[in-house]
Amino acid sequence: MEGFDVVKISYVKELLLKNAREDGRKMMGFRPIKLVTNVIDHAEGSAQVDLGATRVLAAVKLQVEETMEDTPNQGNLMVSSELLPLAHAEFESGPPSPESIELSRVVDRGIRAAETVDLPGLFIEEGKAWTVFIDLYVLNYNGNLFDASMMAAMAALASAKMPKYDSEKKEGIYTERTEPLKINRLAASTTFAKVDKTILLDPNIHEENAASARITIANDGNVVRAMQKGLGGSFSPKEIESLVDVSLSKYDELKRIIEQAAGK
């Protein structure tokens, strides 16, 4: 670990002992969120989120494909992420990194568990269905990619338009997008970091570096849909219960931001 990082971690911990954070936020406060949609013309849906200095771009594409053998009467969903080298000095080009794979899986799990996308509604005809591809591009990394990526993905889905289906050619007509993609419910995630004995929401990059444990909780405002724990530390059952309450309490705020960006 470089000397600069060690100094920053010490600074973060000293502040937390005083019940303070370097940007002045409360322990359970998000950084400023800016969310815009329809930023990519040739995508069915797209969104860019700035969570503090963390920036993520999400693009939704729909493609007609063969149905899966185990789900012959519904469409498919695929989430992928790319940590672009321009986003952080440690990100490199090449095969997906473990961090990229984890990010994709956490976002995918939250969307699937909340049944956000109406997969049965994507069935077209025997052997054919729409596949929804969600591509995440990290443009700048300053902590908490999970919540930023979930918000970007949700806004891209909520603003997506369905291409028409050409039954003769068995393909989509991408010049004609009229109907919105059917969304059952929006999901949101909240990521918490534990630094020594202090737990905080939406950690920035320095707080992440200082953390011993991390947990991401996805919910739909009523039900916790998914959880993902990271790093080697732990949370007590009582701490988990408290963080679930915080996560549920933040849902309406995040949902409102997503809906406003998507024009709902």
What is this entry, summarized?
By secondary structure, this protein is α+β, with helices and mostly antiparallel strands. The chain is 29% helix and 34% strand. Helix 2 (98-113) packs across helix 3.
Label this structure with key terms.
single chain; 264 residues; alpha+beta; Ribosomal Protein S5, domain 2; six-stranded mixed beta sheet; 29% helix; elongated
Layout of secondary structure:
Elements: H1 3-17, E1 33-37, E2 45-51, E3 54-66, E4 76-83, H2 98-113, E5 123-125, E6 128-140, H3 145-158, E7 161-166, E8 171-180, E9 188-195, E10 198-201, H4 205-210, E11 213-219, E12 224-230, H5 237-262
Supply Rg.
19 Å
Percent in strands? 25-35%
Count of individual domains:
1
Gross morphology = elongated
**CATH topology descriptor:** Ribosomal Protein S5, domain 2
H/E series:
HEEEEHEEHEEEEHEEH
Quote the average pLDDT: 91
Describe this structure in words.
The chain has about 260 residues and is an alpha+beta fold. The chain has a single domain, classed as 2-Layer Sandwich (Ribosomal Protein S5, domain 2). It contains 5 helices and 12 strands. Strands 1, 2, 3, 4, 5 and 6 form a 6-stranded mixed β-sheet that branches. The chain has a 4-stranded antiparallel β-sheet with strand order 10-9-11-12. α2 crosses α3 and α3 packs parallel to α5. The N and C termini lie far apart (about 45 Å).
